[in-house]
Amino acid sequence: MKITELEGVGAEVTGVDLRQLTTSQGAALESAFAEQGLLIIRDQTLSERDHLAFAARWGSINTNRFFKAHPDFAEIALVGKEPDQVVNIGGDWHTDHSYDEIPALGSILVAKELPDVGGETWFVSMYRAFEGLSDGLKKLLVGLSAVHSAKHVFGGSAPYMQEMQKVARLGRPELADALSDPVHPVVVRHPLSGRPALYVNPAFTLRFDGWTEAESKPLLDYLYEAAVAQQKVYRLVWHPGTIAFWDNRATWHFAQNDYHGQRRMMHRVTVEGVPLEPFTGRPHKTPVNHRGPGD
Ligand SMILES: [Fe+2]
After folding, report:
1. Structural domain tally of the chain?
2. For residues 207 and 147, is the Cβ–Cβ distance under 8 A?
3. Measured in angstroms, how far is the CA atom of residue 106 from the centroid of ligand 1?
4. Environment class of 236 (CB within 10 Å of its CB; exposed 0-12, middle 13-18, buried 19+)
5. Which of 132, 159, 260, 276 has the most beta carbons within 10 angstroms of its beta carbon?
6. Taking the complete model, does pTM exceed 0.85, yes or no?
7. How far is the CA of 176 from the centre of ligand 1 (A)?
8. CA of 67 to the centre of ligand 1 (A)
9. Is residue 290 part of a domain?
């Protein structure tokens, strides 16, 4: 097994079969995931059961409330776009599930059907997004929390949900409307690495806690722009057998929508996370060695 750090964010993993992981391979993947926040694993042949078994290594599975489910496996969400559809799922910078009180750890996306060209998924690091800011702004942000919500995206009055419901790609908006909007630290102490990570995103963050939306918008917009501008975006080109496993607390992603007229179908399994704690400025853990043992 070979784990290669990618330019930008994440690590690429080759020379491994996720259906038959050795103990040392599993440990190396865990270290790489904690440190990099994104694993791109190539050349896999996973059935739905294999996909779920790999996900279960990382925690309990979060069955998506809004996405259309696989007809035979309720825990697998279908993230797809048909040739006659125009809108895609996840077509802006975001991190999944920040609207939950306990946001999901991350998702494991398996490519099932790909367009001939296009349909990349782009990623950026939220560790780097924070690291790139000035000391003064870091100090301000460490003391802040932010309010997140799903209602304007997945709620009953959200235009996106209404559009997607017509063709049964998303559903159950009442569950989004019933959620209470959680407050999360703006800078979290990453649960796996102990490092500070910026935890606001353009899709689901409404405002800083205690601030109005109008007061929050200029600073949030600055952070969103800086997060992407100050680092190299990793552009994942999918191939048959490619798997992406990202950490919602350490990355953002953006599904490109540039393959109109073609079908793209992905299977997504999401793993439950833990309550998020603020980064308090204490020294973080010694970085783990993410290099694989070469087996
Ligand atoms: Fe997403």
Report:
1. 1
2. yes
3. 9
4. buried
5. 276
6. yes
7. 16
8. 11
9. no
Q: In this structure, what is the dihedral angle of CA atoms 55, 267, 61, 203, given to the nearest 10 degrees?
A: 120
Is 148 considered catalytic here? no
In a domain, 243, yes or no: yes
Distance CA(152)–CA(161), nearest Å, equals: 9
Please give the distance, rounded to the nearest whole angstrom, from the Cα atom of residue 17 to the centre of ligand 1: 25
**Catalytic residue flag (residue 128):** no
Cβ–Cβ < 8 Å for 264, 110: no
Residue 293 lies in a domain: no
Ligand 1 centroid distance, CA of 96 (Å): 5
Q: Pick the catalytic residue: 96, 97, 128, 247?
A: 96
What percentage of the chain has pLDDT greater than the value 70?
A: 95
119-131 tens-digit pLDDT: 999 999 999 999 9
Q: What is the mean pLDDT of residues 245-250?
A: 98
CA of 248 to the centre of ligand 1 (A): 9
> Two tokens at 173?
């908006």
Active site residue 247: no
Does 289 reside within a domain? no
**Residue of 128, 249, 253, 267 with catalytic role:** 253
Per the model's pLDDT, the better-predicted residue between 277 and 259 turns out to be: 277
Residue listed under structure tokens 């993993």? 13
The whole-number average pLDDT for the span 94-113 is: 96
CATH number at residue 51: 3.60.130.10
| Domain encompassing residue 134 | 2-271
| The predicted structure's pLDDT at residue 123 | 97
